[in-house]
Structures are given as C-alpha cells and as structure tokens.
C-alpha cells in the first residue's frame, strides 16, 4: 500500500505563486502553468523544471531536500527551453525552441546547450544560434554553425558525452549520429543515416542500431544494424509492406527491438523483433485505440507496456505480473479516478517522479519512494485551481451517418444534470493525428464554468484510432470530416444534452476552419460561429504559410488537403453568402501557420454578404495569443459573444 506524506513546499518565486481564493474566473484559466516539465536527477539530489514566462521559458534547478533554487538557464527573449535531460549527476543538456503563439507547435531551433546544476558553465554546444549573445541570456556564445542537433540518448553511464543527431539546413537532409562532449562541445561521428530525415535509436550500450526516416515522398523506411560500424539493413519499407514501424527501443540485452507498427487497418500494435531470428511477435494491441504513451521499465528502461486512451486512460503491460506492472497497479489504486504515470527516476530506481492527471486536474507531481512506498506531493501545475470545483468530461461514443464509430467527450457545467443546455461544439486543431483526450482541457473548463455544455469529437482524420481512421480524413476538409461534427452535434440534441436553439461552434486553427465551414454548410444548426487563428481560404494554403516551403510539405498539402483547384468549393471565404449567423474572428499578425490574411479575407467576405462579424487582431501575436492580457481580452470577448447569442446574460468575472 502506498502512503502519502504531507510535505511543506518552500515557495520559489518562479514556481510557487499563490492566488487569492476566489470564484472560478477568467484569470484562473488565462494564467500560465507554473511549469511544463519536471525531472529528478540521477542521484535524486536535484529537481529541474521548465518554467514558462510571458516572453520565454526558463530552466530552474532546485535542491530536492528543501526545494531552494540553486541554478538554471535563460535563453533570452522569445526563446524557450524545450526538452531537457540529466546527462550526469549534476549537468544537464537542453534544447531550444521558438514559439511565438500559444497554439504554435514549438519550433526546435536545433541548438543544444549544457548547464551545471549550480547554474555555472551554461553554454551552447552545437547549433545555429547565439553567435551574438541575446539580451537577458546567461548562455556563453560559441561560433555559429549552420546545423541542427537533437539529443538521441543522454548516455548516463558516460560522464562526458551524450549521443546526438546532426543535420544540415537543407531540404530533406541526411542525418549523422555523433557523440558530443558536454563540456568542450567536441563531436565525433558514429553513424550516417541511410535515409533522409533520419531518427536514430541506440541500445543500452549506446550503440546506434536503428534509424527511421523518409524522403520527399514521405514514405517511411526503417533500417537496423548489428552494432557500430556494421552495414545498415532495410527492415521495413512502407512502400512494399504498407505499414510504418517506429522503433521504440531495444531490450536490455540488445537482442530485441521493440516497434510500434502502424497497419493499413486496425489500431497500432506493439511488436518485438528478434534480431537473430527476424521473428516479429505482437505484444500489445487494442481493438480500437493506438498506444497513447509507451511505458518504460524503471530498472532497465526498455519498453514494458503502454498507456491507452479508451475514453479514460488505462495501462497494459507485456507481462502483467512484472514488477513494473505491479508498481503501476499500486499507483492506480492510490489515485482512484486519476491517471498516474512515472516520468523520471533516479539511477538506482529508489525515487520516481509520478505525474497524476485527470479531466479535472491539470497535473500534480509526487515523489514516490519505491522502498518505503511513500508518495510525497511536490507541486501542482496550477495550485490556484480546485479540481473538485472543475467540470467532468464524460467519454461518449456514437455512429456517423455512414456507420463510422466516433468517440469524444461531453463536458457539463459543474452541478448540471446535462439537460437542454446551451452548447458549444469545439472541433480540435491539426487536424490529422490530433485527438481529444481525457485530461484537463482549458477551453472546455472555461466554457463549462460559464454554463455551457461542450462537445469535443474525434472526427475522421483524428489520431488514436489507427491509420485507416486517420487516412479516412484525407482530402475531406469540408466533406466527411465536417459531416462527423454535424452528426455529433445532432446526437447531442437527440440525447437531450443540447438545446437545439442554443448551439454555437468555435475552434482554433483547423478548428477555426471547421467552425466557419460548419456555419456555411449547416446554416440552421448553429446560432453563431467563432474562428480563432483559422484558415478559411484553402487554395491560399498552397501559396502562403510555412507548410509549402519544403518538398515534403507540399506533398502533404496535396495528399491530405487537396489540389488548389479543388479547394475553392470547400473554402468558407468563398461561401460567406451561405452563412446566416453572427461570426467572431481572432488572429495574430505574426502567424505563419494560419496567416492573418485568411481572417481578413473572411471578414471582407462576411461583410460583403451582410453577415454580422466581430474581430480581434493583434499584430504581434502568432498562432494563438501568447501575451496574458491578449488572451484575457480574447476570452472576455468570446464569452460576451456567446452570451449574446446562446447565453443568459452572464457577467464575466475577473480577478482584481
């Protein structure tokens, strides 16, 4: 049985900021998380965390004994510490990224840095950036080099080196694997990928033995070799096998390679490949869902199981009686109704950090003593939120008009029985490969707090349901993907959840497109539409934005969205005369994924069609508003807009 130890956590200026007790209000949702990631050092002496600020993300290092900050790293304005890894007992390697907007996928700069636990020796080791020191940065510059580097393995048994991949800034480059000295920056090549855009996997001994990549055609190839210096052998070619196999890691003795195999039909399965016999053996496969997260052994760090998101999360193991499986069962019993997962551990496995999340809990971290079976709470992502006051997200399943099984979630206002409520349909962005999850969802919680039911659906094209389900969305923008949203909305009405006279549709990025397309395609179903950082003129995607700048990106656009000449018919900007309900548009002037021209064109078309339209534009924002004041204004405007059209005249509360 796991016991809980109540610990007094010393406040740290960047990590532990208190909020006055207040009712649920905008500031509670607009406010940035206290941290993103947190990891324990190999000896357990330190904790390291990435802390988001308004214009950067910094690295903070704390003593575990008293949680006092002892060091850290700061890349400067508009730069962010992305991933970080303990490379030795007291030195970390971390990567940098650029992220202008809140919905931007972080763009890794390809720079790798190192810093000691006491904050000393912070410097760039390899990458293109910081020949000239950025204002506010504590990073020592080196000579600029036009390459991108990414960590492959921290090589914890090697006191000076880590394993990295390096590639030039060319279209679909070939990648090299290199050993990098984390003090001097000296590099030694150990492998060259036989395929463009290669991603390497090493065995326990640090030998690079597997690589997966794809050329301009986006066709995946997986190669394997016996050891350093040996020739690469083609293990899987998507063009002939019709499957993609992602390498997950090697067994402790190096005799087996674990793979996540994506097949033409059905969900992904986890298989083992015997290096000596070439035998593939299926270890885990679900009837419907792909593995959501791979679980690695505490003792050996080889793959031992997976977390599945089947409505609510559940874990499965290759060996249900293994020590790792038993430990997870103990954690799950200790946190009923929540999802615990181990995120990092000490070298000896004595201490692990456990992340605990749910639909109502943004995330708590516990330090688990595997010997004493004690779990001590370390920190919460949002100390100012009370999970008990948050809304429940209920998993749902329904059938589309053509019989396809759809899954998703309905979030109801706290205390509501879910009858004839005003409802907001919230299509996710992406759209391909992204999927709705049973976790704390800011948009759903905010809208539920304002009295709305929220519907999130995994329309075809979404991830977590196998390749066939995802590919069923190809070239279906405005087609069957949109019909799935319509069918789910009508299902919610039939179930008595939604008041048919009070439904709006709101989304960001692709979700913004789906919101405006829904209003055009189903003019009698929705009472208003909100598009946030959306794309509304699909032919423009082939000419503007960041996706078409490389050959593989243009291939993606044509295969998944469609040829420019076929897309005008499913572009909301060309269908404004079909929209009969008020519209609210918001966008950022520095957005490269969904350039603001999409929103301005949509606005002009709506005005010409006589459709009421409101706008909120910020020149300095990117793909999602990053500045807290800008996010607050957007949500104030959003709630006021919804309230006028499907609400009951509620006031929007804000903290003083």
State the main characteristics.
single chain; 656 residues; alpha+beta; Rossmann fold; eight-stranded mixed β-sheet; five-stranded mixed β-sheet; 10 helices; 36 strands; 16% helix; disordered N terminus; disordered C terminus
Could you characterize what this model shows?
The chain is 16% helix and 36% strand. The chain is of the alpha+beta class. The protein has a domain at 408-646: 3-Layer(aba) Sandwich (Rossmann fold), CATH 3.40.50.1820. The strands form 8 sheets. It has an 8-stranded mixed β-sheet, sandwiched between helices. It is globular, with a radius of gyration of 25 Å. The protein starts with a strand and ends in a 10-residue tail after the last helix. Mean pLDDT is 89; it is low at 1-24 and 650-656.
Low-confidence parts lasting 5 or more residues at pLDDT below 50? 1-24, 650-656
Radius of gyration: 25 Å
**Biggest beta-sheet profile:** 8 strands, mixed
Structural class: alpha+beta
Shape: globular
Total number of beta strands: 36
Strand % is 35-45%
CATH architecture of one domain: 3-Layer(aba) Sandwich
Number of helices: 10
Helix content: 10-25%
CATH topology of one domain: Rossmann fold
CATH homologous superfamily caption of one domain: Alpha/Beta hydrolase fold, catalytic domain
Distance between the termini: 44 Å
Strand order of the largest sheet: 29-30-32-31-33-34-35-36
The CATH class of one domain is Alpha Beta
Average per-residue pLDDT, rounded, comes to 89
């Amino acid at each position: 049985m796991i016991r809980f130890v109540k610990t007094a956590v010393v406040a740290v200026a960047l990590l532990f900021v208190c909020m006055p007790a207040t009712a649920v209000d905008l500031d509670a949702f607009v406010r940035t998380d206290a941290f993103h990631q947190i990891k324990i050092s190999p000896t357990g002496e330190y904790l390291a965390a990435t802390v988001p600020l308004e214009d950067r993300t910094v690295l903070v290092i704390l003593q575990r004994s008293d949680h006092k900050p002892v060091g850290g790293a700061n890349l400067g304005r508009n730069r962010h510490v992305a991933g970080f890894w303990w490379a030795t007992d007291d030195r970390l390697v971390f990567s940098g990224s650029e992220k202008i907007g809140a919905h931007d996928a972080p763009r890794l700069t390809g720079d790798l840095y190192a810093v000691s636990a006491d904050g000393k020796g912070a410097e760039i080791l390899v990458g293109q950036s910081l020949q000239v020191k950025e204002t506010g940065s504590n990073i020592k510059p080196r000579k600029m080099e036009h390459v991108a580097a990414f960590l492959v393995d921290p090589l914890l048994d090697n006191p000076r080196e880590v394993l990295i991949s390096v590639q030039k800034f060319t279209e679909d480059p070939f990648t090299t694997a290199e050993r990098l000295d984390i003090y001097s920056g000296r590099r030694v090549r150990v492998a060259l990928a036989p395929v463009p855009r290669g991603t390497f996997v090493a065995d326990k001994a640090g030998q690079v033995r597997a690589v997966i990549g794809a050329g301009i055609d986006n066709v995946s190839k997986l190669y394997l070799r016996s050891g350093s210096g040996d020739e690469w052998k083609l293990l899987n070619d998507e063009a002939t096998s019709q499957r993609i196999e992602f390498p997950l890691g090697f067994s402790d003795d190096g005799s087996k390679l674990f793979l996540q195999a994506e097949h033409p039909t059905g969900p992904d399965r986890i298989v083992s490949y015997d290096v000596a016999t070439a035998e593939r053996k299926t270890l885990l496969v679900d009837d419907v869902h792909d593995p959501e997260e791979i679980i690695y052994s505490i003792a050996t760090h080889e793959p031992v199981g997976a977390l599945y998101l089947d409505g609510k999360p559940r874990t499965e193991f290759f060996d249900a009686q293994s020590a790792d499986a038993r430990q997870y069962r103990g954690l799950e019993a200790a946190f009923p109704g929540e999802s615990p997962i181990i995120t990092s551990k000490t070298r000896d496995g004595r201490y692990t950090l456990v992340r605990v999340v749910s639909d109502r809990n943004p995330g708590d971290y516990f330090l688990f003593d595997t010997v004493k079976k004690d779990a001590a709470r370390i920190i919460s992502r949002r100390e100012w939120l009370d999970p008990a006051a948050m809304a429940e997200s209920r998993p749902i399943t329904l059938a589309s008009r053509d019989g396809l099984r759809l899954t998703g979630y309905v979030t109801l206002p706290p205390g509501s029985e879910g009858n004839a409520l005003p409802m907001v349909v919230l299509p996710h962005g992406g759209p391909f490969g992204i999927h709705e999850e049973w976790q704390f969802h800011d948009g759903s919680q905010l809208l539920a707090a304002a009295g709305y039911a929220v519907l999130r659906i995994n329309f075809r094209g979404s991830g977590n349901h196998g390749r066939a389900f995802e590919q069923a969305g190809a070239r279906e923008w405005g087609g069957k993907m949109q019909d799935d949203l319509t069918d789910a909305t009508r299902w919610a009405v039939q179930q008595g959840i939604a008041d048919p006279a009070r439904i709006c549709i709101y989304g960001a990025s692709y979700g913004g497109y789906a919101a405006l397309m829904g209003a055009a395609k189903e003019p009698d179903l929705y009472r208003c539409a909100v598009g946030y950082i959306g794309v509304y003129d699909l032919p423009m995607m082939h000419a503007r934005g960041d996706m078409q700048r490389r050959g593989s990106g243009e291939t993606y656009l044509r295969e998944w969205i469609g040829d420019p000449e076929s897309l005008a018919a499913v572009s909301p900007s060309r269908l404004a005369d079909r929209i009969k309900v008020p519209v609210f548009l918001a966008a950022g002037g520095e957005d490269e994924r969904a350039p603001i021209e999409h929103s301005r064109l949509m606005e002009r078309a709506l005005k010409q069609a006589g459709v009421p339209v409101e706008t909120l534009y910020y020149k300095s924002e990117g793909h999602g508003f990053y500045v807290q004041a800008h996010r607050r204004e957007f949500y104030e405007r959003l709630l006021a807009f919804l309230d006028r059209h499907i609400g009951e005249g509620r006031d929007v509360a804000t903290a003083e």
